[in-house]
Design brief:
CATH superfamily of the largest domain: Bira Bifunctional Protein, Domain 2
Strand content: 25-35%
Number of helices: 15
Helix content: 25-40%
Distance between the termini: 40 Å
Shape: globular
CATH class of the largest domain: Alpha Beta
CATH topology of the largest domain: BirA Bifunctional Protein, domain 2
Strand order of the largest sheet: 3-9-10-16-13-12-11
Number of strands: 23
Structural class: alpha+beta
Number of domains: 3
Bound molecules: glycyl-adenosine-5'-phosphate
Radius of gyration: 26 Å
Amino acid sequence: MPEENNKLKSQPTLEEIVSLSKRRGFVFQTSAIYGGLANSYDYGPLGVELLRNIKNEWWREFINKRADMVGIDSQILLHPKTWVASGHVGSFSDPLVDDVVTKKRYRADHLIEEWVERQLKKGKEEWNGFVVENLSLEEMAKFISDNQILSPDGNKITEPKSFNLLFETEIGTIAGEKTIIYLRGETAQGIFTNFSQVLDSTRVQLPFGIGQIGKSFRNEITTGQFIFRTLELEQAEIEYFFNPNNQDWHELMETWKQQMMSFAVNTLGIKTENLRWRRHSDSERSFYSKDTYDLDYNFSFGWKELWGVAYRTDYDLKQHMEFSGQSLEYRDPFSGEVFVPHVMEPALGIGRALLMVLTDAYYKDEEKNRIVLKLKPSLAPYKAAIFPLVKNKPEIVSQAQELFNLLGQKFSCTWDARGNIGKRYLTQDEIGTPFCITVDYQTLEDKTVTIRDRDTTEQTRMPIEKLESYIESMIK
Ligand code: GAP
């Protein structure tokens, strides 16, 4: 394996993450009672909290805290011309091959990648540093035939063909007639099509950005990467508009790269050694981009894209001007210059961010024989767990309930009165709850409780009246 593809020894396996996710209610297989649906997952009671915390942090950092950013929430179903104008109908595709016997479909680039990994495992160092993304469709066809690459079932495969990723559906606006429309393939286009309305309805001036979080849909066929690659995905995207005549795009891209890295490390608490930048090669880069970098994370199955930043130039606005006949130009209020703004686009996948956060926080504490999710407290689904020491002593239970009601007004809390305290601690450690608070006999006498720290497992006694400010100071 190329060195950069080696996962750190401390990373958990994907099986461990999948198992914890299911066991504790972070992520479930979708439609499990019907046998599931490929590349589709549901978020359980804890997953939805974690997901929401990640999205809230993103929104706070990139929209609320900044004077140069506004948010929108556009439709999943946009006018079908949007996707013709954006180029997605023509060019948003993956190279697919079919197994000639089973007729199962595979991504040609993924089969090639797996073949190269097998060569490296056999010690064939000449494949070190090979990047499949550099190959065109024709080059992939030649590579497959030269190296006699077979399907995972050991059968011959067809030549790679481009397969469009957009999901099509229909609306019946006129009796007997149906119009094809698409589930959006990226949230970005809802931003471009709203550009002039945002401009006209707010007081923004260049440079400024429009952000949105929402579902997108892609007809992905590669399975087995859990929530990393899904049919229905959630994106947090920003289109940052600027004047290329007075702002250097290289510098702007560098600034965005720093902001993205800072969000991953400082806000989401990800270890720096598990993040790296990778520049797209010319053949890999999307049709709309002049330069693209991926912020890759060291997932259990290798370094993979978490977040991309692309310089989309004025491509999208110009395309929409041409197809809609509407002007999407900007008039500089000081110089009077009229032009089509250029765009820098940082695009994050929220599901991938969640998978990264789970992977990075997963810690096997061999010494104490426990699994701990060392989530940043601000991301933890529950900030505190409240336990009555025993459940057959009504005074203790009602004192604990009172505490739950008190703290619950401030933080998301959970309640557990089952089993022994040790087991309750282990459960909370696995779901990343930073604090466990136990109401015991002494509480009835002096209104103090024990508070246990998830990471150190240390317990201290604290007056109830101090809990709120203590937890607040620790979860920031
Ligand atoms: N508007 C630009 C755009 O959509 P992208 O690299 O195709 O760029 C942006 O997607 C982000 O969306 C990716 O970095 C990734 O995190 C996430 N993403 C893309 N396809 C995905 C999929 N099938 N499943 C989950 N996340 C996906």
